[in-house]
Amino acid sequence: MEAKPHDSEAPRNEELGAARLKSRGVKAKASCYRRGEESLMVRKLVTAILLVCPALAFGQTAMPTDYQGVLIALGKQGDFKDNVLRVNIPRNDLKVSIGGIATPTPFGFGGWLALTKGNGMDVMMGDLVLTEDEVNPVMSALLTNGLDVTALHNHFFYDTPRIYYMHVHGHGSPSELAAKVKPALALIGAHPPASTAAAGRAIDGNLDGAALAKIVGYDGEQNGAVFKITIGRPDIPLNEMGASINARMGLNTWAAFYGNDADAVVAGDVAMLDSEVTPVLKSLRSSGLDVVAIHHHMTGTQPTVIFLHYWGRGSAQKLAAAFRAAVDQTGARPKPSATR
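Now predict its structure.
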């Protein structure tokens, strides 16, 4: 006969079974907890990578160490893309009105320096935004420290205070160039102008950036109240010391829009070959845009590149169409596949 367990053993067996189940549950919870901790650690690690090394996280080229040193030495912010370090020198200290309209800094008052690597040394170019009183002290500081000044000009009419743009150029190691330009940068904004002029009126509302980009045929970027479209000239093979002088080095055409769809202003720059100058002028004037300057930015370049600055006011889409018509007179004309 099969032996039956003693009655007193049954409760003991039930207790043992319950204990085993409880033990398994504790182990399962502990395993889930460990997996949760590991998942949290992974998420924290990924977040750290995104914060510390965004260039690696998004497949961009990491900024060279010597260019990081330039930003530290100058105490400025910047970014590295297309083999170019771009150093931002915005004139946020200025309140500028143009024709009675208060215009934000991104509309045309963001100075910059750009560095790229050539054969044996770096090439630096830049555009510094200056008040009248700053022009000659800054120029002297640049020249005294071995840098070239290649242009000085206006971008606007009827601007208060009067603003000038100085183009700078130099060769050397990144640390040498930073040391040479730093004394000039220290003079910018050191003595704010004592202007009693009215600040001008702001234009309320928003722009339909997507509509403007569609008209022009190139994408743009929104920076505060300003929508800006920048167009390179890769059709112009400009090189210096083996370095490509691309859009981020200053070889570009651009348009900055501010206001709203019905009431806006535009200002910008058109990079042109000699043969393109007159067709662009005719296009801008026939569209009602004002031409405010024609000049060079760089010296000793082959081919010669001429830059033209313009300004206009009206509906945003009409201004975009006028800009597009001028662009179509140059080698920057959008290709059929690129038009929207």
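The CA atoms of residues 296 and 336 lie 30 Å apart.
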